[in-house]
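[job 0412] stage=fold_complex status=start
inputs:
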Amino acid sequence: MIRQAKGKTPRRPPPKKPSNNQKDPVGVYCRVRPLGADDEECCIEVISNTTIQLHAPDGLKANRNGEYKETQYSFKKVFGIKTSQRELFEDVAKPLVEDLIHCKNGLLFTYGVTGSGKTHTMTGSPGQGGLLPRSLDMIFNSIGPYQAKRYVFKPDDKNGMEVQNQVDALLDRQKRDSQTTVPKTPTTRRIDPEFADMISPEEACKADGVDEDSSYSVFVSYIEIYNNYIYDLLEETPFDPIKPKWNGAGTPLRNNIEFIPPQSKILREDQNHNMYVAGCTEVEVKSTEEAFEVFWRGQKKRRIANTQLNRESSRSHSVFIVKLAQAPLDADGDNVLQDKNQVNVSQLCLVDLAGSERTSRTRAEGSRLREAGNINQSLMTLRTCIEVLRENQMCGTNKMVPYRDSKVTHLFKNYFDGEGKVRMVVCVNPKADDYEETLLVMRFAEMTQEVEVARPVDRPICGFAAGRRQRNQAFKEELTRRLEERGGPVDGEFPTVLNQLLQSFPPLPPCEISGPNDDVTLPRLIEALEKRHKIRQMMIEEYNKTANMLKSVLQEQDSNILSKENFIQEQRGRLGEKDKMIQNQKNEIDRLEKKSKMLEYKIDILQKTTNIYEEDKRSLQQELESREQRLQRELSEKRRMESRMQGMVTDAKLKWEKECERRVNAKQLEMQNKLWVKDEKLKQLKAIVTEGKTENRQPQRPSREKDKVPPKRSASPSPVPSPYDGSQSSLSSLEPIYNFSQTVRSDPHFPRPGSVSVASCISEWEQGVPQSRRQGSQSPPDSRKRAQGLPNSLSRRRGRCWAREVPVQPADVDLEETTHWTGPPVRPLHRRSHSAGGERWVDHKPTSNVDLDTVLKPNIPNAIKVNAPNEKALSKCDRYVLTHQEVASDGEIQTKLIKGEVFKTRGGGQSVQFTDIETLKQENPVAASRKRRSSETDPDGEPMEGDWTDVETRCSVAVEMRAGSNLGPGYQHHGYPKRRKP
Ligand code: ADP
Ligand code: MG
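[job 0412] stage=fold_complex status=done
writing structure:
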């Protein structure tokens, strides 16, 4: 059985202090009304949708010397004269209504000078409903289907809300219905034309996210604060026919209408520290019309009171409070949960403040002045409170806010302390008359915007499964459908069952008592009734049993469903997780795809680069191949050339060998001829001697010397006899200095190999070099002529050098040809250092040399003596000397020391550069003196004799030939050679 939640309210949790630190500034909006027809001058201009500009009217400017300037004021939003009531509602009040439905409080007030449009904004007029009717409409549009039955929620008198059980609620409803004064249902009544069409149906709006598993109820109260007194505008004042025509307060009645002035109410603080008007009527309303009708009733009452009490309505504050009670449905989704702690009450206060004009402007006198002062006092208090709040918030001070100084501020204290959203619509009339007042309003508005109010927290959610209402609804529908399926009208269902049941009872016996003595009827009836009673008891038991069973089954089902729902919820959660995972993976895939695309692109580029490189490589390879082929060709060409050259060289060699042989033969022949001539002469001489023995015995020339024929004496072949032979040799022995700075180079026509070539070279060289000397110095008178007659090839030889490369084969003296023929001679060779213990010589004495047995012998200390020049010896020494013997023109053997310097060549071989020649010659001093004498005595003697004598004389001394070469082997060879004993 459902029990009523007792009137004794359980203690509520301590006042809800906002747990979050988030704060919102007081939302201040500005609405500019259009100018009245009479007001011509306008002092307000809307600059943007957040800013207005005030400019002083002309008269005021003139009075104050233009002291007033244009001033701008900004708001959260400015609504111009063309703004519709609906637009204003959408921006200003709609969020507050949404908050209300979501259990949050709100305070909305209009502020401004009288006539600025506060009432128009708040209440509006038919066809132009203001914020209040629109808010009510929105509330009912939103909670309409979820409203609790009337009187299920019941306000206690301590600003709390109770939940009644169904029966009590029903009883209360019946009681209300029985009262004739209260109209049955608002829908059946005709709507008061005064407030009809406040909101057109197409403008209806609805809040989202209404909790369908809660039940709602709306309560409205309407109070007026006048002269700092609070009056309840909805209080029922029963008509009191006994009351006199003058009321207790001494206020005269007007128009003879029965009027009992309202009693002022006091403010109280509930257990949540919220302020409320104690004993204030709260009317539960079920529709917009009903609510607005209640409001209109209050309005009427207010108007009457003002008229009766001679008050100005503009000096009172009217406060319309909409309370929304909501409680969760029970687990069945059928009834409101009978738990007072689960009831949530939120409220929206819609305040139409009194006009903000100053006392001076209110043409008040006497008691009216006091009223005006009070009115302004309450607004002044509001200003002060806002100021202090702002200061506390901005400077971090903790000054006490004087809420209690006026009823208005006291009533709304909680809002500023963080119990809900606060919004203010500043109404302004742009007419010039209101300028100064409007200026004050603007300043207040500006200040108010700087106050911040804590954001209300969300209410906790009750622990039942969601969707209870829907489920129950669906169940009911299903039941109806099934009953219909079973046939017959639903209404007739129950009587049929009942009839069947009644038929199953034993029939009642006839109950008519025949007479006072009838003892049968009554006992029979009693018996039958008892039987029936028993059956009924049994049936009740059965029914209870079945009901209990069904209940337990249902409960089981319920719990099953609950667990299934939980399971589904869980699965949903998991599904969500999986979805998230999938999303993440998708993102990852996307990322990877992008990456792979990027990589593919890179690969593409690399591929292209590789292709380019490969092409390059191919072309380079081709080039390489072609070059190799060319090289091969060139090599083979070279080889061919080499072989050709080899052939040429062999040819030349053979030619020259033949030539040499021919020349040697010729020479031998010549020598033999000479010998023969000499022999002939000797024979003749002999004949002469034998013939005339009277003559002086001529000292005979040693026959031994004469017998020594040149071929025997010299191994090296004599050069081809030339006309200069004699003179040249004598010249060379005469000239003390030979300048060999001009190097002699090889001639390709000369035979190369062996010492033979050296000798021929030397002779060649001898033929060439002195010629130059002769040209500029002590050359004989005919030498010039002879030089001129020289063949070109001969004169060219002066500039040649015999550079001797010692190749790998040490025994082979290889004469290398260089092709530099012009320009001053360069020494491409590097002379060895002399610093290491003086000069070292290679003493080359061919084996064919004959020991002359002379006193003066060339002796070179520390010399390496060789028969044939070799690499090893040359590498150790820095000087080279070849001892060469040949037969002079006079038949004597002359020895030539051909000297040279050894150089290392760049190729790692050795080369010899010939620098001097010393000629050692033996002569017969007797013959010489005879010859000299004969020449002296007979200057016209035979030229051959003269020549011979001349050479003999001049060759008597060996002269060192190289300038600066003091240590040369010929140094000690001055003087006459030892004359052999005859
Ligand atoms: P208040 O309540 O501030 O004293 P009211 O709301 O009574 O001022 O407005 C005074 C007059 O101006 C009314 O007749 C009202 O119809 C008119 N009025 C005010 N605001 C507007 C508006 N925005 N548009 C049209 N008329 C307006
Ligand atoms: Mg008004």
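[job 0412] summary: Residues 118-119, 314, 352 surround magnesium ion (ligand 2) (CB under 6 Å).
[job 0412] exit 0
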